[in-house]
Each structure stands twice: as C-alpha cells, then as structure tokens.
Known about the structure:
Elements: H1 7-38, H2 56-62, H3 65-96, H4 103-115, H5 118-128, H6 135-142, H7 159-184, H8 188-196, H9 201-212, H10 214-229, H11 233-238, H12 250-260, H13 264-289
Amino acid sequence: xPGRFSYDNRSAAILVxxxxxxxxxxxxxxxxxxxWVSLHDIVLTRPLRRPFVGLENxxxxxxDPRFHTAVLRTTLYTVVTVSVTTVLAIGVALLxxxxxxxxxxxxxLLLLPWATPSIVNGxxxxxxxxxxxxxxxxxLVQLGLLESYRAWLGDPDLTLLLISNAAIWKQMPxxxxxxxxxxxxxxxxxxxxxxxDGANVVQRFIHVTLPALRPGLMLVxxxxxxxxxxxxxxxxxxxxxGPGDASYTLSWLIYVETFRSLRFGTGAALSYLLAxxxxxxxxxxxxxxxxxxx
Length: 294
C-alpha cells in the first residue's frame, strides 16, 4: 500500500521547507511579536518595566484626539491621491493604448517618475515648493500670476494637496501601465460591434472599455490605497507633520509615538489599527470591483 506522501511530495516538501522557515523568521515572527508588544505598556525610558495591559493601548489611541486628527488627514490624503491618480492613469492609458508615432518613447518616459527613488522624489518636490528659490514660485512670478514668492508648504490649507501632488507624480505611471496591460487584452471585436451599433467614442468607453477595465482598476485601487494610507517618506522629508497638524497622518503619528516618544506599545497598537484599516479598504475594493456581474 503506497504511503500517504509520494516521493515527489516529500521532495517538494524538503525543497519548500527552507523558504517557509525563512518566511517564518523574517515575516511571521515580527508580526506576532509586534502584536505581543501592542498588548504591553512598553516605554524605552523604563525598559525593565513592561506590564501586560491587554487592549488598553488600542483604547487609549482610539480616544486620543491626535488619532482622530490623523484619521481625518489620512482619509483626505488617500481620497485625493487615489482618485486623481486613477483618473489620470485612465487618461494616460487611453492615450498610450493608441498607435501613433513616438508611442514607445512615451511609454519609456512614463517609467521615469515611478523609477525615481522616494527620497529623491520628496527632495525634488520640496525644492520645487521652496519659498526662497523654488521653481514653482519662479515660474508663477515670471508669468505674473504671483506677486512675490510664497511658502507653499507653510500653508495649512495647501500642504496635504501639495504632498498629494508629489505622490501622484510618482505613483500614476505604474497605475497607467497596469491599465494599459488590461486594455491590450480587450478584444477588438467588441469595439467593432459597438461601432456597428452606432456607439460614439464616449459610449464605447463607457460600455466597452470601462467594464473591461474592472480587473485593472481593482488592482490599481487596492495598490494605490495601500500605498497612500501608509505613506510616510514624503511627510518626513517635506513637512514632518506640519505646519501645525496640517499633515499629521496615521503613519506620522506612529512614527512620533514610537520613535520620538519611545512608547513602543501604543506605537505597535497604532500600526495594527492602520493594518486593519488597510485590509478593510482592500477587501471592500476586491468585494465590489472583483465580483462578476451576470
């Protein structure tokens, strides 16, 4: 009677085991340990005292006014960044999906913002917005649209939008490429049939292109939401949460709580709250955009 596992299965298990072991060490253990940290009152100013507090850290953060401010700022930043990135990506994908001279060159140039390191991207836009020698001020003054140089990142009403612009510039190319790949898979017969039925360009986009883009749109929305809701590097480089609390997002609050206040317990609790929020939003996108309509 043959054994429960064949030779091939045993060989596969032996080969896969080292990978699983590495994943457990570098992924599963840190996740479980950080959850353990979130259940304890760990402050590095008194490292030997680590009392178990259960869910108290979560309750403390949920009741903290800074958390409410951070959620509001994160929501605004995510909505602006994801929506504008998606709309622009659809427009760019529609353009580059057409056959015209220079199409391949534009496709290659489209990768440049996405390939730019995040630190370089943040420093570049901080220089563009600089109140003393920034490019944006120079151009607007030369065009007569601005009388004098302005501290753009010092305006609480504009700060989040300006940071969102820097994020959109970097994230839009990848979203556009994902949508272009999806568009390439749309059968030409659908467009021919729509033309025979008398559909114009807008109608073909609404009734043919847009429904076929659902898988690509779902991927773009999930990815961009996960990136935007956890964004940190631009806030660190450009504003450090300021001016005031104008760019005080959840990721920045986690950084302040963990590495400035040295309260690792509440910092870990905030990280799990952010992870749960990211998971919930991703699930909603997959649930409503991923379902097939009969």
